Amino acid sequence: MTTIKIPSPLRVYTAGQAEIGVKGATVGAALTDLLSQHPDLRPHLYEGDQLRNFVNIFLGEEDIRYHDGLETEIEPTDNLRIIPSIAGGRDGTRNE
Q1: Which of 25, 1, 68, 33 is nearest to 14 (CA)?
Q2: Mind listing the pLDDT tens digit for each residue in 39-92?
Q3: Which of 13, 24, 30, 44 is surrounded by the most beta carbons within 10 Å?
Q4: pTM for the full model?
Q5: Phi first, then psi: what are they for 31, rounded to 5°?
Q6: Among 5, 75, 9, 54, which residue's Cα sits nearest to residue 34?
Q7: Residues paired with residue 58 on neighbouring β-strands, in sequence order
Q8: Does the structural domain 2-84 have CATH classification 3.10.20.30?
Q9: Strand 19-22 relative to strand 62-63: parallel, antiparallel, unpaired?
Q10: Which of 29, 30, 43 is nearest to 3 (CA)?
Q11: How far apart are CA 66 and CA 61, in angstroms?
């Protein structure tokens, strides 16, 4: 069974689980199975039917965007990771 590693900020929506076993022949099918198990994750991963821009999915060490995206084929022994992009910080100006 393929596993998906859940980042710490999203574990509140998976009852604290760091890894979840999923079924599916593609990354998209695996995410569909993940969301069937934990539907509260949907708004944090998707906007409508599209994966949010700041959500990165890795198959092993490879970003699926450099493969076939959600259509990337997976094997039952594969590991997927959800990695949200980090944004923010300072713009270089200081308030004194």
Answers
A1: 33
A2: 999 999 999 999 999 999 999 999 999 999 999 999 999 999 999 886 655 555
A3: 30
A4: 0.86
A5: -65, -35
A6: 5
A7: 63, 81
A8: yes
A9: unpaired
A10: 30
A11: 11
